[in-house]
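Subject: Interface between my chains keeps coming out wrong

I've been trying for a while to get a sensible model of this assembly. When I model each chain on its own everything looks fine, but I need the whole thing in one frame so I can look at the contacts. Pasting all components below, labels as-is. Any help appreciated, I'm running out of ideas.
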Amino acid sequence: MTITVSSDFCGGNIICKKADKASNIRLNIRKDEASDFYQWFYFRLTGTKGQACRMVIENAGDAAYPKGWDGYQAVISYDLHDWQRVASTKYDGKALTIELTPEHDSVYVAYFAPYTLQRHAELIAGAQMNSAARVSVLGQTLDGRDLDLITIGEPGEGKKQFWFTARQHPGETMAEWWMEGFLNRLLDPADPVAKWLLERVVFHVVPNMNPDGSTRGHLRTNAAGVNLNREWAEPSMKKSPEVFLTLQRMDETGIDFALDVHGDEALPYNFIAGCEGVPNFTDGLRTLITRFKDEYVAANADFQTKYGYPENKPGNANLSICGNAISHRFDCASMTLEMPFKDNADRPDAAHGWSPARSKRLGADVLDALVGVFELI
Ligand code: ZN
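Reply #2:
Try treating it as a single job with all components included. I did that and got this:
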């Protein structure tokens, strides 16, 4: 049977150099458009059922985050629902080798469980069926896609404005899995924590900040090759309409609390990066951020505070990064959540590693952390 490797579908990314033998499939990851970033891969392999396959991603060593391959295991799926880790994934400092004997005719292989634009469309469509939610389009992306905003909660005097954004970096699909868990709980009419919050807060949620990059199979950039999380100081409709349009709406609503959701290639932990380096940072903000993190630990044992990025020195924050820019502009608590591509090393799951189910759970459980910190916001 002929062996085929294909990636011409939503989020697909691979270049097949050679696939005449199952034991020697040679691959490259394609760079993001007009950019040098690459690391996300997603492809379909067929014609190899029962054969020992050896897939070599030859250009892994020059990817955006080579440390991301240390201790990393690729994921595969036969049914596009369950994504399992491949234990025999090896990195030798140059190439990433995935060894696998497929149990079925067709197998999908990816960097992390994909979150397609079809699933995104279903997430938005499902949300609007809930009477607490409104759906609007902030504008169009460079490829002409809708940038979707979900607003949850009735406007009212004294209500706080909370903003949640995810997937500025499109390869960080765990960020949109997180959003799905978060939105499902927030829209659950039987959940008393969600109801308590909706009495006090209007939530503004952009579950996918970068639908163009998501569709194109990019790791980090939009259709113009621009890293959206470096555009928050001076976004433009020409280069970064996703940020320009979101910030425009943020200016209309104001912000009391913001969380921007990401994935980290290298660190096998869930953690928060705060905004300690912004010029207007205060002791009050530090207390709030510390409390939020402690409440998140209490709400979900996959979250932790020991490992993370080093804190920015006072006044040294990069104000083109979303988390810092929002805190600076709106004088509010604004944080970045990072989830692993690999696993949570404190509570490893050999079969799935860090997964859609765990990302969704972490998204749902942020509601408890918000209640815990609410008096400080
Ligand atoms: Zn990111």
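Reply #3:
Confirming on my end. The chain has a mean pLDDT of 98.
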